[in-house]
Amino acid sequence: MLDDRTRYRKRRYEFGDGVTMQLGRRTLVMGILNATPDSFSDGGRYLGTDAAVAHAVAMVEQGADILDIGGESTRPGAEQIDQMEEERRVIPVIAAIRRELPHVPLSIDTYKAETAKAALEAGAHIINDIWGLKGDPHMASVAAEYGCPVVISHNRHSHQYENLVHDVISDLRSSIGLARAAGVKDEWIWLDPGIGFAKSYEENLELMGRLSDIADMGYPLLLGTSRKKFIQRTLNASPQEVVEGTAATVAVGIMHGCQIVRVHDVAAIKRTVRMVDAIQYR
């Protein structure tokens, strides 16, 4: 049954190109599309525009509500790329998906402000920033200029915490402050607890059990646990063998107030979401 954390975050978004999106009626599934050669579980599979579009169409047919397109791997040890290379990978893909799927909200997964701006111009609707507006000092201004939802993810360079949940909330509040100072309205801010980023195995598990504390901050909460290493370690399995573990984290997340889940295995997780929503959204 819906609790107060979810109830007061019902929001409807209407974008200038006619695309709409509703939060608070059911959990939204965000499908991951990596236009990269080196992502940890599917690097190189969707690097070409045709392959990326075909995968995007397949995910929407499987039930994806949003598509998240990224051009730079965020796995540990991944090679950083410059803005021009990132744009070369993602802008043609975004433009092509926008033509093929004109009613589907698109998200750009980047921490670079100029890439985000180019993606929004090409047809993206949402910015998903793994560095919580702290990786590029101009990112918050781009979000404010375009009046788009921005996913503020928890991340940090230091892995040292005095109190994990308290520190995560403090870091997120700092990012929210950057957004507000740039003119981003509260209704456009989404939060991501940053599972898998700057956290140990034990800290990821602890934070999964405390997601309601993040939801209590009053912003829509996005959860991105799909195929991540803490699930692989728990199940002693490869990234392609942890769909059940991902489904378990998604179920826990929804029951703790998460409204959007970011996943690779859309068909299986969509079924999980429908079951949990039948309990939660009644």
Overview of the structural elements:
The chain has helices at 4-7, 49-62, 83-100, 113-122, 139-146, 164-182, 201-208, 211-215, 229-235, 243-255, 266-280, and strands spanning 11-14, 20-23, 28-34, 66-70, 106-109, 126-129, 150-153, 189-192, 222-223, 260-263. The protein is an alpha/beta fold and 282 residues long. It has a single domain (4-280), classed as Dihydropteroate synthase-like (TIM Barrel), CATH 3.20.20.20. The strands form 2 sheets. An 8-stranded parallel β-sheet has the order 8-7-6-5-4-3-10-9. A two-stranded antiparallel sheet has the order 1-2. Helix 6 (164-182) links the parallel strand 7 and strand 8. Helix 10 packs parallel to helix 11. Belongs to the DHPS family. It catalyses: (7,8-dihydropterin-6-yl)methyl diphosphate + 4-aminobenzoate = 7,8-dihydropteroate + diphosphate.
CATH 2nd-level architecture = Alpha-Beta Barrel
* Strand proportion: 5-15%
* Order of strands across the main sheet: 8-7-6-5-4-3-10-9
Helical segment tally? 11
Topology as H/E string? Answer: HEEEHEHEHEHEHEHHEHHEH
Give the tally of β-strands. 10
